[in-house]
Amino acid sequence: MINDMATGRYLSTLVEGNINPMLLPAILFLLAGAMAFSTGTSWGTFGIMLPIAGDLAGATDIALILPMLAAVLAGSVFGDHCSPISDTTILSSTGARCHHMDHVSTQLPYAFAMALVSTVGFLALGFTDSLAVGFIAASVAFLLVCSGLAWLARRP
Hints:
Layout: H1 2-5, H2 7-15, H3 24-39, H4 42-60, H5 65-82, H6 87-95, H7 100-128, H8 131-154
Helix pairs in contact: 2-4, 3-4, 3-5, 3-7, 4-5, 5-7, 6-7, 7-8
Transmembrane segments: 21-44, 56-78, 108-127, 133-153
Domain Na+/H+ antiporter NhaC-like C-terminal: 2-127
Protein name: Na+/H+ antiporter
């Protein structure tokens, strides 16, 4: 159905000339995260976003197909993990025997911090087309975020 609607081809015509293709992995990560957060399902987001990301990569820069698909997968899992209506979040809070929204509110700061790290990694990967540079950038961002969180925890 997605192929018949040509959603990916339509979006690629909107993207071409308006958005740098090197930004697409990070954009897809954030969009997939927002979609999975809103719907509470990573698998539904996979089904919608993976064909679109594949078509976008084919129409813009085929070398970015793996980073784009990885960004969709990572963003979907991130959004599902944070969503208060996700089955896994509900099961986690039930299994821990804690109030559901307490569980959600305590996991959000850590998940958003790691989403920031992932976004940095996807940006570096998109701009350099190098897994090593993307990994190094994400590792540096991780260390900075951990240092920042440790500093915040020590403040009175």
